[in-house]
Amino acid sequence: MASIKDVAAEAGVSVATVSRALNGHPSVSEDARRRVSAAVERLGYRPNAVARSLRTDQTRTLGLVISDVMNPYFTELARSVEEEARALGYSVIIGNADERPDLQDHHVTTLLDRRIDGLLVSPTDGGSPGMLGAARAGTPMVFVDRWIPGVDVPVVRSDGRDAVRDLVAHLYALGHRRLAIIAGPAATTTGRERVDAFREALGAYGLDLPDAYIGQGDFQADSGRRVTEGFLDLAEPPEAVFAADNLMALGALDALRARGLRVPDDIALAAFDDIPWFVHTDPPVTAVAQPTRELGRAAVRALVDRIEGRPGESVTLPARLVVRRSCGEPVSPEPPQSPSPVRRSTP
Amino acid sequence: MASIKDVAAEAGVSVATVSRALNGHPSVSEDARRRVSAAVERLGYRPNAVARSLRTDQTRTLGLVISDVMNPYFTELARSVEEEARALGYSVIIGNADERPDLQDHHVTTLLDRRIDGLLVSPTDGGSPGMLGAARAGTPMVFVDRWIPGVDVPVVRSDGRDAVRDLVAHLYALGHRRLAIIAGPAATTTGRERVDAFREALGAYGLDLPDAYIGQGDFQADSGRRVTEGFLDLAEPPEAVFAADNLMALGALDALRARGLRVPDDIALAAFDDIPWFVHTDPPVTAVAQPTRELGRAAVRALVDRIEGRPGESVTLPARLVVRRSCGEPVSPEPPQSPSPVRRSTP
DNA sequence: ATCCTCCGTGTAATCGATTCCACGAGGAGG
DNA sequence: CCTCCTCGTGGAATCGATTACACGGAGGAT
């Protein structure tokens, strides 16, 4: 592979001039510029990004450590992150943690060793030593989707509280009273928040959320299956099940089908995170949709701000309820705008 | 960030000794080794992978340029690639080409600039200049899923011919005679092969595949929708539609639903590439399943073989038909093993 | 004519690792 | 006691870029 020296020799100038010509430095004569371009062309020269990174101490690369790539929500997030990063002149290296803290740590370490310019993380747990160390050491960092309380890092996420309230209103209107939730891991913020939002919304209707109706899942399909089976074995099974992510909803659907139960006639189902396939499941699944694309873009912008010395702010975007048929036939033809009886201030 | 010099100073030895100690070189005294470890520990030192790569001319990184990450098939492929690579001590940088040749080229170039050790590609088109150049220049490279004829690079893929024959047999047994296909881009091998396999299987039943029953798609949901609408507008619409990938099947499902058609009663549907969601669509979709995980692993092994100087062989794995309800009720309780009347030699 | 600026260019230091080569100490063998 | 190895170690070159600094020449001001 041709190096800058070869180009210099070919163009009959010094490496310094080649470098300057290539980087658009002003003080290079038109003549030199042309000869360099010609030499580059002839040799098929491409600058070695590794050498450049070593010298400049920047890789123009972002690390993205994601909880689970197989989850369509995160796939879409990853995609929008890459898009926005590319638009800003950065590459992205994705690490898939598979909801495993040890893998998450492995990726964080590897990315840091590669001297990425900044790190985007949706933490699997309360924070591995490697990650906390990086945050403390001042590596530009932004949490996306999930975050770790007490760590001073901008957070880009979506707030599902209103949408969950809309969902409970929707379920209530359809006559459901015994509502259960398949929760995510308590170690994650999204795991806890969604349960809290659900309980709070229930409270507004005078319903409570007994422990038996809180199933502990791990954001994977299998756990959705297992928890749902537990619900069905209860003396008084729930009338509606809310899965805290789309994969667990898939598992729940599996379990219900295995028992020969019909949705929504025998039991209602809703999910957090909307995905294209929910339109085509049997029945189409009512879900809380996050503005995934915007989340990814906002996260990248916040991170690049940090990298380039600007503040880099936290962003919270609202989620919204998408009503389909899995909780019962929609009551009215128009989508419920905000049917909750307990209004929040909405200026 | 602490460098090897800091470690050397802290341990009271030279940088050469630190390097040797860290890389398990034999001729380092037990004493020096201990002092280096202690210094590393105290400083929280991590070797700079960028500097190491520059010197050793290897990054221990693989590039994966994928046609479309949002396609669950490719997501799973990417995941298994990363897993196997990690097991072999490599990292993976994924580039999403989004079925766009220009983006594919962008990623290939970027990855090459970063001096990745090897490249895994599922080409979007007939081969962009950058990619062909890399192949010619001797960059270790392996094609996965799709390939480019005439380029001397190992190919890891799955052969759907038998499975497509099984599918046609299945459709025939259910009484369908007018069979159409939503094809992938003719520029891709998988796009062409699946049509060829389909036509060949049809031939075995004395059926032919008129041009009107070959819809030109691009492996994206929208094209599946569009092509399906075209089929339905025909004077004699097909009785069964075979989508050459899962996303186009999703689009087809959309279009059918929009027209108020029932699957499989009004029209049958099948897809290439099986995904978890097909179990839960309405109706569950009959599909040709590729051994995706094995494909990813085999591809990485072939590539690493090349990188490390071993031959690196092409691999072709068989796909298999998974019958569900979207083509009609399965005729027999047992899965069709190979119901095709035209037997191939199967020793 | 002299001095000062500015412009274009080249030389060389630098980034953080790996690794070739040389060197001194110590042990074995003659 | 001398020579020859072996072992552990350090000095310095090297990878391919960027960039501070120096320098020569041209042109303008005095």
From TrEMBL, chains A, B:
Keywords: DNA-binding, Repressor, Transcription, Transcription regulation. The keyword Plastid does not apply. One of its GO terms (molecular function) is transcription cis-regulatory region binding. Residues 2-56 form the HTH lacI-type domain. The keyword DNA-binding applies. InterPro entries: HTH_LacI, LacI/GalR-like_sensor, Lambda_DNA-bd_dom_sf, Peripla_BP_I. SUPFAM superfamilies: lambda repressor-like DNA-binding domains (SSF47413), Periplasmic binding protein-like I (SSF53822). Residues 326-347 are annotated as: Disordered. This is LacI family transcriptional regulator. It comes from Streptomyces pilosus.
